[in-house]
Amino acid sequence: MELMHNATFLLNAPGLEGVYRVLAVDNDCGVAGCVKIDELPKVPSDTGKEKPGPEARPSEKKPTGQTKANRRLFLSAAPHRARLTWLPIATLELFESEAQLKEVDIELQGSFYSGGQELLAFDDSVDVRTLSPFEARVFCMKDFLNPAALQESLLDTRSLSSLVSKAMARGKRGKVGIYKLISLLCRNGFCQAALRTREDRQGGAGKPRPCDAIEGGRKKPGKLNTAQTIAKAYGEEPPKVQPAISSEWESRILAADARLPTPKPKMKTRCDSIIRIGFTTRYKQVDGKLIEQPHAQFSIPTNRQICRVLRKRIPELEALIRSTTKGHYDRNIRGLVGRSWAGVAGPGHTWAIDSGVGDIYLVSSVNRAWIIGRPVVYIVVDVWSTAIVGFYVCLRGPSWDMASQALFAAAAGSETMSGIYGFDCSLGLSPEPTLCFSLLCDRGEYLSKAARQFAAALIQDLAYAAPYRPDWKGIVEVIHRIEKDMIVPWIPGAGDARMKELERRGFRPNDAVMTVQEFVAVLAVEFKTYNLTADRNHRLDPAMKMAGIHPSPSGLWNWGHHEKIANRRKVSELELYTHSLPMGLASITGRGIKFNGREYECQQAKDEHWTTMAKNFGKSVLNARHFGGSTSKIWTPNPTGPGVLRFNLSQTTTASGFETDDEMLDSNAFHLLSKNDRDYARMVTRLQARVQADEIIALAKERTREAKERDRGAKPTMTDARRLENDMMEPTAPNVGPEQIRPEPDDVDELYARLEEEARRRMEAEETAGG
Fold this sequence. Notes:
Elements: E1 8-11, E2 18-26, E3 31-38, H1 71-76, E4 84-88, H2 89-97, E5 101-104, H3 133-140, H4 147-157, H5 161-171, H6 175-188, H7 226-233, H8 247-259, H9 267-278, E6 283-286, E7 289-292, H10 303-313, H11 316-322, H12 326-333, E8 350-357, E9 362-363, E10 371-373, E11 376-382, E12 388-394, H13 400-411, H14 414-421, E13 438-441, H15 443-446, H16 449-458, E14 461-464, H17 474-487, H18 516-533, H19 542-547, H20 553-562, H21 573-580, E15 583-589, E16 592-595, E17 598-601, H22 603-607, H23 610-617, E18 620-626, E19 633-637, E20 644-649, H24 661-673, H25 675-710, H26 718-729, H27 747-770
Parallel strand pairs: 8-13, 13-14
Antiparallel strand pairs: 1-2, 1-5, 2-3, 3-4, 6-7, 8-11, 9-10, 11-12, 15-16, 15-18, 16-17, 17-20, 18-19, 19-20
Helix pairs in contact: 3-5, 8-9, 13-21, 16-21
């Protein structure tokens, strides 16, 4: 051990047992000035109990010179430790070699540093009466706090008398007071904090002071009430009043409160329950049942006394925990215990996915007069960079089918997604995201069989947050709040569901104007803006600042890839499409390739004559993957080669590509709702047409019969009649000029003119008769 000023050591040598602090070391004389600051515990004697000596019998005589206020301090004060002992250095080294001496380290309590650790410095001209108690102590003992001045005095005089005299003159204190301060320095160490005043040991506010009904116990505090004052003035016996809180009552109240379930009820109910559990002592047996009886007056504490005990004896944090459930405390009350990106290797390693209902009403792209409700928005966030790497808007959920399509949107790339939607879907990230290594999702998606199959094929680590613990993946929850804050103020049909007051929600479904794809386009712009502009200055370390990266999610993403700490992986298109998108059956027929009632086309299918083969040798089916956010494309494995075939909507199909799968299903369902009406209308139309046709046939029969009865002479041949009918149907040649001579009608024309005139007269006669 190296002997130096302020060092402490434990000595077990016979006659010298105790803990010592070194004040000065005289290497020339080979001695060290030490002060024993603590005695070692004595080993009990085997000869029996020792007779109690004077020290074992506390004196009943009250100490003189002490007031009632500080008598407690005097009785509990530690003994003085300021007797200087000079020990030979060689002897101490010998004790150390024999393992009878070892160095120890004594740490002060935190209360010594409650006022801060700033160092105080004063001139000798300072008036000690203007200083606080702590400052006066430091000013008085400044020479003792100077190691050079203390060692010089001890080596010259082998005592502290000179420094004590200076301290008495400087601080205007007596010798006893100075030696008390020296004792504090010896016990606590030669530093300014050792001179702190210990207000925490003075029995002030917050200290228990029970009013136990025992001899010498503390009486109820406070002044007498009006009835007691009057009785005292007249010399009468004061009336009985509510007793003060005793130690027994405190124990009963705390024990009864501990039996109440958490979260605790309202205070009034809580007090009544404490009285019933902890203070009910009288029962009455009625029909074999014990019935609680009213308590006697002044035998139980009041609600005010119970509240005071609970407030004073239960720590604030413990009371807060008892006032709510554990889940609510963990989510909304407890302090921050970590960061979401702690333990994440870099960008692209861990993603978090979560779904939320958008605070907006949308209209159908099939018919904008239809309101389809609020959409479900899936967001995929990179945990390390907090960047949004993908999203998906649907009308169903939550389910793994929807979550897997959001992962497809994140890993497929902006070029693929822009081709599907028909507009720019880039999110401002360079390079483009690839599929992650670890995924954090909700329990509902995690427990599905499809999720396990997806994880077995593409994700090494699939985990979920505990139910009702959104704080475990708070980054993606915050993104939902940011998304709603971005779209609520200015998009028609949007509102704020977080407002508790119904009047402030602001939902107006009839104001909705946006379709699903238009909402996707808005989200793409807003998420790209978030990636490029969100403030991430708190994430920058000195290396990032020196590199000059932009403090945004996109900047963190780009920097992580530039510094080679990102996680990237190559996943084949066939694997991605197979495990991410839902599957259906596409039919290859002689009329084309159809999927869900829509016709698709592909150049390879045309080159290989798929429809010709189906027309001549029978239709066939193949597995097709489709993206629920748009009907514009489907994907199938290439049956004659590697890779994936992409099919686009045919120009002659019944869909435009701007609808979602759900909207197509809605339109089909709406169309089927009126099928019976359409069938009925067709039937009525057919019946009406048949009635009209029957009337025409009947009229024709009647007219033909009448004509046969009138015309009983010679009839023209079938050829002549046909020629006459054709002449009647041909248009009359225009008159080209007065010089042209009109041909004379032949016999057939005369016959036709006569029959036409007769038919006209008959029709006029029928109309006149009918009118």
